[in-house]
From TrEMBL:
This is Phosphate-specific transport system accessory protein PhoU. Belongs to the PhoU family. One of its GO terms (cellular component) is cytoplasm. The keyword Transport applies. It is found in: Cytoplasm. Residues 23-109, 127-212 form the PhoU domain. The keyword Cytoplasm applies. Keywords: Cytoplasm, Phosphate transport, Transport. GO terms for biological process: intracellular phosphate ion homeostasis; negative regulation of phosphate metabolic process; phosphate ion transport. InterPro entries: PhoU, PhoU-like_sf, PhoU_dom. Homodimer.
Length: 235
Protein backbone atom coordinates (compact mmCIF):
# COMPACT_ATOMS: atom_id res chain seq x y z
CA UNK A 1 0.00 0.00 0.00
CA UNK A 2 2.81 2.40 0.93
CA UNK A 3 4.63 1.64 -2.31
CA UNK A 4 1.48 2.27 -4.33
CA UNK A 5 0.90 5.57 -2.54
CA UNK A 6 4.51 6.59 -3.11
CA UNK A 7 4.23 5.64 -6.80
CA UNK A 8 1.05 7.72 -7.13
CA UNK A 9 2.57 10.78 -5.47
CA UNK A 10 5.71 10.57 -7.62
CA UNK A 11 3.60 10.20 -10.74
CA UNK A 12 1.53 13.26 -9.78
CA UNK A 13 4.75 15.21 -9.15
CA UNK A 14 6.08 14.21 -12.58
CA UNK A 15 2.87 15.36 -14.26
CA UNK A 16 2.91 18.64 -12.33
CA UNK A 17 6.51 19.29 -13.39
CA UNK A 18 5.56 18.82 -17.02
CA UNK A 19 2.54 21.13 -16.69
CA UNK A 20 4.74 23.77 -15.09
CA UNK A 21 7.33 23.50 -17.87
CA UNK A 22 4.66 23.83 -20.55
CA UNK A 23 3.39 27.04 -18.96
CA UNK A 24 6.94 28.36 -18.69
CA UNK A 25 7.45 27.64 -22.38
CA UNK A 26 4.14 29.34 -23.11
CA UNK A 27 5.27 32.41 -21.18
CA UNK A 28 8.48 32.62 -23.18
CA UNK A 29 6.59 32.25 -26.45
CA UNK A 30 4.17 35.02 -25.44
CA UNK A 31 7.14 37.28 -24.75
CA UNK A 32 8.65 36.39 -28.13
CA UNK A 33 5.46 37.40 -29.94
CA UNK A 34 5.13 40.67 -28.03
CA UNK A 35 8.76 41.57 -28.72
CA UNK A 36 8.52 40.55 -32.38
CA UNK A 37 5.50 42.79 -32.97
CA UNK A 38 7.21 45.67 -31.18
CA UNK A 39 10.34 45.08 -33.27
CA UNK A 40 8.26 45.15 -36.44
CA UNK A 41 6.18 48.22 -35.64
CA UNK A 42 8.82 50.30 -33.84
CA UNK A 43 11.98 49.31 -35.71
CA UNK A 44 13.81 48.28 -32.53
CA UNK A 45 16.95 46.63 -33.91
CA UNK A 46 18.08 45.30 -30.53
CA UNK A 47 14.73 43.61 -30.02
CA UNK A 48 14.81 42.16 -33.52
CA UNK A 49 18.10 40.41 -32.73
CA UNK A 50 16.88 39.37 -29.29
CA UNK A 51 13.82 37.61 -30.70
CA UNK A 52 15.88 35.81 -33.33
CA UNK A 53 18.50 34.74 -30.76
CA UNK A 54 15.92 33.57 -28.20
CA UNK A 55 14.29 31.15 -30.63
CA UNK A 56 16.83 28.50 -29.59
CA UNK A 57 15.52 28.75 -26.00
CA UNK A 58 12.03 27.84 -27.20
CA UNK A 59 13.41 24.91 -29.17
CA UNK A 60 15.42 23.67 -26.17
CA UNK A 61 12.35 23.78 -23.92
CA UNK A 62 10.37 21.71 -26.42
CA UNK A 63 13.11 19.08 -26.56
CA UNK A 64 13.34 18.86 -22.76
CA UNK A 65 9.60 18.55 -22.22
CA UNK A 66 9.33 15.95 -24.96
CA UNK A 67 12.08 13.92 -23.25
CA UNK A 68 10.23 14.10 -19.92
CA UNK A 69 7.02 12.92 -21.58
CA UNK A 70 8.82 9.98 -23.17
CA UNK A 71 10.29 9.01 -19.81
CA UNK A 72 6.89 9.09 -18.13
CA UNK A 73 5.33 6.95 -20.84
CA UNK A 74 8.09 4.35 -20.47
CA UNK A 75 8.23 4.36 -16.65
CA UNK A 76 4.60 4.97 -15.69
CA UNK A 77 2.65 3.57 -18.65
CA UNK A 78 -0.18 6.09 -18.11
CA UNK A 79 -3.75 5.31 -19.13
CA UNK A 80 -7.05 7.18 -19.62
CA UNK A 81 -6.91 10.90 -18.76
CA UNK A 82 -3.25 10.72 -17.67
CA UNK A 83 -2.27 9.40 -21.08
CA UNK A 84 -4.44 12.02 -22.78
CA UNK A 85 -2.70 14.68 -20.71
CA UNK A 86 0.71 13.48 -21.89
CA UNK A 87 -0.47 13.43 -25.50
CA UNK A 88 -1.92 16.92 -25.06
CA UNK A 89 1.42 18.16 -23.72
CA UNK A 90 3.34 16.65 -26.65
CA UNK A 91 0.98 18.27 -29.16
CA UNK A 92 0.90 21.56 -27.28
CA UNK A 93 4.66 22.00 -27.13
CA UNK A 94 4.86 21.26 -30.85
CA UNK A 95 2.47 24.13 -31.51
CA UNK A 96 4.29 26.38 -29.04
CA UNK A 97 7.59 25.68 -30.82
CA UNK A 98 5.98 26.57 -34.14
CA UNK A 99 4.58 29.76 -32.66
CA UNK A 100 8.12 30.57 -31.58
CA UNK A 101 9.25 30.00 -35.16
CA UNK A 102 6.58 32.42 -36.40
CA UNK A 103 7.72 35.07 -33.90
CA UNK A 104 11.29 34.68 -35.16
CA UNK A 105 9.99 34.98 -38.72
CA UNK A 106 8.28 38.27 -37.85
CA UNK A 107 11.57 39.53 -36.43
CA UNK A 108 13.45 38.47 -39.58
CA UNK A 109 10.90 40.28 -41.76
CA UNK A 110 11.32 43.37 -39.56
CA UNK A 111 15.07 43.17 -40.09
CA UNK A 112 14.58 43.16 -43.87
CA UNK A 113 12.00 45.93 -43.80
CA UNK A 114 14.26 48.26 -41.84
CA UNK A 115 17.35 47.46 -43.92
CA UNK A 116 18.78 49.01 -47.08
CA UNK A 117 17.22 52.43 -46.49
CA UNK A 118 13.89 51.41 -48.01
CA UNK A 119 11.62 51.84 -45.04
CA UNK A 120 7.88 52.07 -45.66
CA UNK A 121 5.28 51.31 -42.99
CA UNK A 122 1.88 50.42 -44.45
CA UNK A 123 -0.74 48.47 -42.50
CA UNK A 124 1.10 48.29 -39.15
CA UNK A 125 -2.06 49.36 -37.34
CA UNK A 126 -3.86 46.34 -38.75
CA UNK A 127 -0.97 44.03 -37.87
CA UNK A 128 -1.03 45.27 -34.28
CA UNK A 129 -4.75 44.55 -34.18
CA UNK A 130 -4.52 41.02 -35.59
CA UNK A 131 -1.55 40.29 -33.30
CA UNK A 132 -3.54 41.40 -30.25
CA UNK A 133 -6.28 38.91 -31.12
CA UNK A 134 -3.79 36.08 -31.71
CA UNK A 135 -2.02 36.77 -28.41
CA UNK A 136 -5.34 36.79 -26.58
CA UNK A 137 -6.11 33.40 -28.13
CA UNK A 138 -2.76 32.05 -26.95
CA UNK A 139 -3.27 33.36 -23.40
CA UNK A 140 -6.73 31.78 -23.25
CA UNK A 141 -5.41 28.45 -24.58
CA UNK A 142 -2.61 28.37 -21.99
CA UNK A 143 -5.06 29.29 -19.24
CA UNK A 144 -7.39 26.52 -20.36
CA UNK A 145 -4.50 24.07 -20.22
CA UNK A 146 -3.46 25.28 -16.76
CA UNK A 147 -6.99 24.98 -15.37
CA UNK A 148 -7.83 21.79 -17.34
CA UNK A 149 -10.89 23.66 -18.59
CA UNK A 150 -12.14 23.17 -22.17
CA UNK A 151 -14.82 25.87 -22.05
CA UNK A 152 -12.77 28.54 -23.85
CA UNK A 153 -12.16 26.41 -26.93
CA UNK A 154 -15.25 27.48 -28.90
CA UNK A 155 -14.51 31.15 -28.26
CA UNK A 156 -10.92 30.69 -29.42
CA UNK A 157 -12.12 28.97 -32.61
CA UNK A 158 -14.38 31.95 -33.32
CA UNK A 159 -11.48 34.32 -32.70
CA UNK A 160 -9.43 32.34 -35.22
CA UNK A 161 -12.12 33.02 -37.81
CA UNK A 162 -11.78 36.72 -36.99
CA UNK A 163 -7.99 36.52 -37.41
CA UNK A 164 -8.45 34.87 -40.80
CA UNK A 165 -10.80 37.64 -41.93
CA UNK A 166 -8.42 40.35 -40.69
CA UNK A 167 -5.57 38.68 -42.58
CA UNK A 168 -7.60 38.69 -45.79
CA UNK A 169 -8.24 42.41 -45.26
CA UNK A 170 -4.50 43.04 -44.87
CA UNK A 171 -3.85 41.18 -48.13
CA UNK A 172 -6.36 43.38 -49.95
CA UNK A 173 -4.77 46.55 -48.59
CA UNK A 174 -1.25 45.43 -49.46
CA UNK A 175 -2.25 44.50 -53.01
CA UNK A 176 -3.68 48.00 -53.45
CA UNK A 177 -0.55 49.48 -51.92
CA UNK A 178 1.71 47.60 -54.34
CA UNK A 179 -0.40 48.56 -57.35
CA UNK A 180 -0.22 52.24 -56.39
CA UNK A 181 3.58 52.21 -55.99
CA UNK A 182 5.49 49.23 -57.47
CA UNK A 183 8.69 50.52 -55.82
CA UNK A 184 7.32 49.32 -52.51
CA UNK A 185 6.53 45.75 -53.59
CA UNK A 186 9.48 44.16 -51.76
CA UNK A 187 8.62 45.79 -48.45
CA UNK A 188 4.91 45.02 -48.87
CA UNK A 189 5.69 41.34 -49.46
CA UNK A 190 7.79 41.23 -46.29
CA UNK A 191 4.93 42.83 -44.34
CA UNK A 192 2.61 40.23 -45.87
CA UNK A 193 4.90 37.44 -44.63
CA UNK A 194 4.83 38.98 -41.14
CA UNK A 195 1.04 39.18 -41.21
CA UNK A 196 0.85 35.56 -42.37
CA UNK A 197 3.06 34.57 -39.43
CA UNK A 198 0.57 36.22 -37.06
CA UNK A 199 -2.29 34.39 -38.76
CA UNK A 200 -0.44 31.10 -38.24
CA UNK A 201 0.04 31.94 -34.55
CA UNK A 202 -3.75 32.09 -34.29
CA UNK A 203 -4.03 28.68 -35.96
CA UNK A 204 -1.62 27.13 -33.46
CA UNK A 205 -3.41 28.72 -30.49
CA UNK A 206 -6.67 27.26 -31.80
CA UNK A 207 -5.04 23.83 -32.03
CA UNK A 208 -3.88 24.11 -28.42
CA UNK A 209 -7.38 24.89 -27.19
CA UNK A 210 -8.75 21.88 -29.04
CA UNK A 211 -6.18 19.61 -27.37
CA UNK A 212 -7.62 20.64 -23.99
CA UNK A 213 -11.05 19.41 -25.09
CA UNK A 214 -9.44 16.10 -26.06
CA UNK A 215 -7.64 15.88 -22.72
CA UNK A 216 -10.78 16.46 -20.67
CA UNK A 217 -13.46 14.87 -22.84
CA UNK A 218 -11.50 12.29 -24.82
CA UNK A 219 -13.02 13.74 -28.00
CA UNK A 220 -11.08 14.94 -31.02
CA UNK A 221 -12.69 18.27 -32.03
CA UNK A 222 -10.27 19.28 -34.74
CA UNK A 223 -11.90 20.45 -37.97
CA UNK A 224 -15.34 20.94 -36.41
CA UNK A 225 -17.31 24.15 -35.88
CA UNK A 226 -17.37 26.25 -32.73
CA UNK A 227 -21.01 25.28 -32.21
CA UNK A 228 -20.10 21.58 -32.30
CA UNK A 229 -17.30 22.16 -29.79
CA UNK A 230 -19.73 23.94 -27.45
CA UNK A 231 -22.11 21.00 -27.64
CA UNK A 232 -19.31 18.53 -26.91
CA UNK A 233 -17.97 20.54 -23.98
CA UNK A 234 -21.47 20.91 -22.55
CA UNK A 235 -22.11 17.17 -22.40
Amino acid sequence: MVNKEHFSKKFDADLEEIRTRVLQMGGLVEEQIKNAIEALTEGNEHMIEQVIDNDHRVNAMEVKIDELCSQIIVRRQPTAIDLRMIMTVINTITDLERIGDEAAKIARMAKLIYAADRMYTPRFVEIRHIAAIAMDMLRKALDAFARVDPNASAEIVRQDEQVDEEFRSIIRHLVTFMMEDPRKISTAIEILFAAKAVERIGDHAKNMSEYVVYMVKGKDVRHVSADEIEREVGK
